[in-house]
Amino acid sequence: MSDIRPALLVMDFQHGIVERVKESGVVEAADRAVTAARAHRIPVIFVRVAFRPGYPEVAATNIAFSAASSRGDGMHQDHPNTQITSALEPRPDEPVAVKRRVSAFAGSDLEVLLRGYDANALVLAGISTSGVVLSTLRQAADLDYRLTVLSDACADTDEEVHRVLLEKVFPKQAEVITTEKWVGAL
Question: What's the DSSP call for residue 131?
Fold first, then answer.
């Protein structure tokens, strides 16, 4: 279909998260996707999770993030842990959306950016598969985006959860392919 207008979302490839993942090839796969997207003039949007000093966005009832807020400033928006890994350095003209929850849409300006690019399809790469990729995929599907998940550009600390999501859950709402196959189809 020639009416497909994709955007590549490179999600949570930030220092504090990348360093926890055992799968070393995930950053390289994401880099290949970014390089190909740039070469084909597909918008690349980087997404990172971070909070303001004092964590005003985190309610005490939020199990996932209230623990992080009690451990100091490691998730503050200016902290090195929340910056995009240097291996995937965004260009000055590539936006970095800062989200305040698990989904790339939650608390960020991602929807506005996607409307600005007139995107109707999303290509997802991210850490973790059971976190940002799953949450973003579900929300994007509800927003009627055509979805592709780059299987080797996603990683999770739980290998079995990663496998089940890629093989059984995601294919119900997205095409799940390798970065090589996606690049080859451009």
Answer: I
Residue 169, classed as helix, strand or coil, is helix
Three-state secondary structure call for residue 127:
strand
- pTM for the full predicted model: 0.95
Q: Is the dihedral of CA 134, 136, 141, 147 positive or negative?
A: negative
Q: Is the dihedral of CA 15, 20, 24, 30 positive or negative?
A: negative
Look at the chain and count its residues. 186
Which among 109, 18, 107, 128 has a CA at the least distance from the CA of 62? Answer: 107
The pLDDT tens digits of the residues spanning 14-56 come to 999 998 887 679 999 999 999 999 999 999 999 999 999 888 8
Tokens of 178: 């390798």
